[in-house]
Amino acid sequence: MIKVLPIQSDAPTKKSSSPGRLIVLTGPSGVGKGTLMQELLKRHPELYYSVSVTTRSPRPGEINGENYYFISRTKFEQLLAQGEFLEWAEFAGNYYGTPREAVLNQVHSGKLVVLEIELQGARQIRSEFPKALSIFILPPSMNELESRIRGRAQDSEEAIARRLCRAEEEIQAAEEFDVQIVNDDLENALNAIEAVLFG
Hints:
Elements: E1 21-26, H1 33-43, E2 48-49, E3 53-54, E4 69-70, H2 73-81, E5 85-91, E6 94-99, H3 100-108, E7 112-116, H4 119-128, E8 133-138, H5 142-152, H6 157-171, E9 179-182, H7 186-198
Parallel strand pairs: 1-7, 1-8, 2-7, 3-4, 8-9
Antiparallel strand pairs: 3-6, 5-6
Helix pairs in contact: 1-7, 5-6
């Protein structure tokens, strides 16, 4: 069993009697992180999901403020210069970032805070908050990952090739994370995440 420790921070916020925890969920594009997060939040509404900021365009059905906060590159760069992000990364030509203040406030109020972020951002979190729990989601195989990315029908051939190349690099980093879970079956993967989070 994995012992999950509260993160340490000097941020001046109210503290609750139960320590909050920062959880990082990452894995390659197309591995099913978003679907796993949606199902996890349905089962555990007490979790705080940090909505990321991005400069990419919304996909069909995505809602601003629910899936992401969609902003311009200029606005993102302004917020970045002001130190407003806990972590940030550039991926597939777009910026992604986690709002700093909201996350730290939730952790210090005793919440279990889950970040669904890219590898680069996950490494930044590990560096600043070494006691954060990090979970890496793996695909059953590269063929299955390619099938899932193509199944979304949202990317050009060039973009798919970039995502698959990046995925191979990211999978090499899986051992850096506290827990690795293969998303071969949604229910099994969810149960594995729940076992890690709630024992």
